[in-house]
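>> received
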Amino acid sequence: MRKILCCILCGLLLAGCAAAPAATPETARTGETASTPEAGFSTSETAAVENAAAAVKTRRLTVVLNGCIAYEVDSAGGSLKTAIAAADLVVFLAGDLVPEDLPGETRTWQQELSADDQATMDANWPGVYRCAQDICADPAAQQGLLDDAGVTTDFSTMDLTDVPEQLDDMNEVLTH
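>> returned
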């Protein structure tokens, strides 16, 4: 029964459907209690769920970063595509699925790029980074560009407090 439950939970995590709100001190204690062997889950089952969650976070990061190389900045609509990539990056970084070692995971992704993809990233990243910073600093000022790009996210309702620092961490990796 526990294996079936674990498989279902892993499937939900891999599908990206199990996004949960950030843990508070109260829920963190409850979560710790629920995942201990005494609560009915073995250590290996807990490890499997944690590994699945880490895989989901890495996959989400890969998808977001791939969005930064899915176009050429000099092509038609390049500024709008840059805005879409920046918006997706901000949404990702403001969410619950950010890897614990964001710089390390970003470095791993970058090391796997082909020479052509790295050249595209080198050309696109400064604009994506700048646009993402602008979204964090003043979402309302970017609304016209975001509307033109078809981005419907309401950034004014999001907690973007940690995003600029995360962007800087990623920029440090991607530009060195």
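>> The mean pLDDT is 81.
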